[in-house]
Amino acid sequence: YGEVNQLVARGEVDVAFVCSGAYLPLREQGAAELLAVPVVDGTTTYFSMILARQGLPATTMEDLRGTTFAFVDPLSNSGFYYPSWRIRRMGEDAETFFGETTFTHSHETSLEMVAEGVVDAAAVDNLVFEAVADQRPEIRDRVQYIENSERFGIPPVVVRADLAPSTKRASRTALLEMHETPEGRAALQQLGFERFLEGKDEHYDTVQQMILEVGDGTR
Predict the structure, then answer these.
(1) How confident is the prediction for the chain on average, in pLDDT?
(2) pLDDT at 190 exceeding the cut of 50
(3) CA atoms within 13 A on the CB side of 156
(4) Which pLDDT band holds residue 219 (cuts at 50, 70, 90)?
(5) Do the beta carbons of residue 127 and residue 151 sit within 8 Å?
(6) What does R_g of the chain's alpha carbons equal in angstroms?
(7) pLDDT digits (tens, 9 = 90+) for 147-157
(8) In the predicted structure, residue 216 carries a pLDDT above the cut 80
């Protein structure tokens, strides 16, 4: 996540699909602007799922005290900021609440580690979980659900802030009209998206507040 942010900030990438947690530092730096957001299952929101390995005697977040826990990435909203914020709201700190933590840098890897019993629990993006479970239905039986977060603004497509205005407009139009052509619909289907819509910065205010409470995960 950090590498993609650096590429955008250095001007080496013009357009990028980033996590909602990773977008906010770019916005704060003035390095990127919201270009468009995907629609998945009729919505432009998603949530964090706290999952535990099957057989772990846990039904609540409190039950995960002392367990091994997989975070996704220090800039991941659903895979780091939400679970860290959730523990903070319990009056605890994630670094001492869990017995051991690790960063996998992939929602799929975090999910796989829980399913295989490599770690006790993890936090993953529900959209990724559903995509993996559609391909591998058996994975639903290898994990147990602890809780879901509230819904957040979906990970957006962003554009480099200093890109030419005409190029920004053309890029946005290409995304917003993608569902209107056979080729565009085929590409969207491969991504698991229905279409793109214009996003709104205020949809990420909740994520911004969590980051302020938890602190920058990259430090």
Answers:
(1) 95
(2) yes
(3) 29
(4) very low
(5) no
(6) 18
(7) 999 999 999 99
(8) no
SS3 assignment, position 32: strand
Q: Which two tokens stand for residue 24?
A: 């906010």
- With bands split at pLDDT 50, 70 and 90, how would you rate the model's confidence at 67? very high
> At how many degrees (to 10) do helices 126-135 and 107-115 cross?
60
**Strand, coil or helix: what is 18?**
coil
Say whether pLDDT at 73 is over 60. Answer: yes
Kindly report, residue by residue over 26-37, the tens digit of the pLDDT.
999 999 999 999
β-strand pairing of 121-125 with 195-197: unpaired
Task: Name the DSSP class of 40.
Answer: B
Report the C-alpha dihedral over residues 187, 183, 36, 149, rounded to 10 degrees: -30
Side-chain-side CA neighbours of residue 138 (13 Å): 3
Residue 81 DSSP symbol: I
CA distance 218 to 167: 31
Give which of 84, 108, 112, 85 is closest to 98, Cα–Cα: 84
Q: Is the dihedral of CA 45, 50, 52, 54 positive or negative?
A: negative
Give the torsion through C-alpha atoms of 27, 28, 30, 36, to 10 deg. 10
**pTM: predicted TM-score of the whole model, two decimal places:** 0.92
**Can you tell me the distance from the alpha carbon of 148 to that of 124, in angstroms, rounded to the nearest whole number?**
10
